[in-house]
Amino acid sequence: MDIDIDFDDDARSDSGMTAVSSTSQSPAPSMYSFTSSRDGRTLYREIAGRKLNAQNDLYQLPSDDNEHNRLDKQHLVHLLSVGRLYTAVEEIEEVLADNAPYQKAVLDLGCGGGNWASAMALEFPHAQIVGVDLAPTTSRPPPPNCRFEFDDFTLGMQHYYNSFDVVHSRAVANGVKDFEWLIHEAAKCLRPGGVLYFIEGNMELRNSFREPAEVAFGQGGPGQSWMARMCFEAYNTMKSRGSALDAGVMLERWMNAEPEITDVKYDVKWIPIGPWDRGVTPEETRQLIHLGTLMRQNMKEYARSLVPLFLANGFAPDLVSRFIEGADKELDDLSVHLYLTYHHCWGRKVGSPNVSAAQSAISSMIGSPRTDASSDVDVDDNDSVRAASDVSARSMLSPGPNAIPVVWEGQSPYTSTAPVRFDAESVYSGSLGSVSMSISDDVPS
Ligand SMILES: C[S@@+](CC[C@H](N)C(=O)[O-])C[C@H]1O[C@@H](n2cnc3c(N)ncnc32)[C@H](O)[C@@H]1O
User: Short name of one Pfam family for this protein (predicted)?
Assistant: First the structure.
């Protein structure tokens, strides 16, 4: 395998970066329109033929169409493992119910290709969804009640304090130095009673006994894994550059230590890499084969996404090639059985959501009470009143001072609200509109 390294920061963005204008269908305020020829130079750079964000040097995975396609597969893995868009079903359904005089709102930190944010916009059409990323997708318009912004959330989110009912963040630890700070800052963005929800993976891969997998060195040997070696090296490299890579296993402790958060819950999903795992029933086995097949595709592509990180941090190109060839082979012939774990952790912001108090505050300011809401007003609930006045002060959530909203022309491809079923194809088309993918070639009969 040949690997080219190119640090040309004048690199032009890829094909998906062009079609933008201020005539977007999006209701989001348009302060700025993204244009590839102008902004591709400042917001992106190129390493080893991949396009990376140019705002935050800590995060050295690509932000191009290939990566967003990979993240779509990973999103589907999450859907299949959880059964829907979130494990915190009771809490999120309660807090996003369409029962308030203000628009419910969801913030997705590190939204990437926007798959989760867009799917949430379909599931909660009355809510406003905001996705923030160093380099969100610019090639796939979201549904009308969803918008994306270019921003580094580690610069602070004061502009969003007390504004959201759900703050979600998945697989962002690589771009964060101080994850406990992030938990605190994200909690401040919530209204009282809002849900804070993190998901992080653990790069220490496990074997079929759920023990740490044996890592391949030298020429490798029986039972040793190149995929585990690659994840081990990526972990060490990212961690030595300052990333909070232990977030997955630390989430529960950190969330419990956060004074703004209460009712913390935690869950771990074990994802087989490759279709090797078996369930108790034929149906369970079928599900595990779907999951493993998708995860294998995801991890093979992840191996390629790690190339810029490895090359920029001194790994020899032929060693990187050996990692990838070894990982491809062992995942194809299933000579090693690996799991990756995803750690889900969520909690509620202290204080209870007080829709009545919020309505009172808004009504007194805009003079148009909703007649279907309760008149039981607790004016002593300062948090709720403050939240309500924040909302009325800006009828639409304003982007941060450094943020660049992404604006498209053209229709969103996300149109279907098909229910999530445990069938890879229907889950995918149900969540991601017209994007198509088949895993059938990869599934053994
Ligand atoms: C592995 S991807 C996951 C994307 C998405 N959450 C998903 O699950 O499909 C991590 C994303 O977080 C973004 N990210 C990492 N650090 C960030 C930061 N400090 N500010 C904004 N976005 C960040 C990256 O640009 C990337 O798109």
Answer: Methyltransf_23
